[in-house]
Design brief:
The chain is mainly β. It is built from no helices and 12 strands. The chain is globular, with a radius of gyration of 15 Å.
Amino acid sequence: MEAIVTTYLEEDTGEVVFSSIPDTYQNLQLRLCCRSRRSAGDSTFIRFGTGGGDPDDGSNYNFHYVTASGTSKGGGAYANYAYMDLGDIASTDRPEAEYALCVINILDYANTNKFTSIIGVTGTGSVLGSGASRIYGRTGTWENTAAVDRIRIYNYAANFARGSTMTLYGM
């Protein structure tokens, strides 16, 4: 595994875009350590792009999740969305030192014979004031066979907080 790029946020930022991603790896791995400036929970989304253009915002993403928090559990499936949801992250109602961790494997991102798929996990301390930690397992597909050369990561409602880090690895 080789680090391609790391972004450390020196100030609150609305999105992070990794561009000019080389097609020389089999898979990619994205590792996030982040929090949101929203006051009560926030979700982090991902979009992919090709050919140096803007990331795809069409209804071309499908994803599934399982989640557990304390004694509760759940899951769901979503089709034809304009993004893939990576799960809830820590927000300002949590201690300042609390950050969510997210590891997402992006499989066969340069293979032009099949859709790009992800599998990953996101974990955070208490969300929405519940007092219980939460973990999300994720899978998803982007219905496009072009090689991924751009990744956009952003939150549903607020900026990423200063101190968040995001690293893209080639595998």
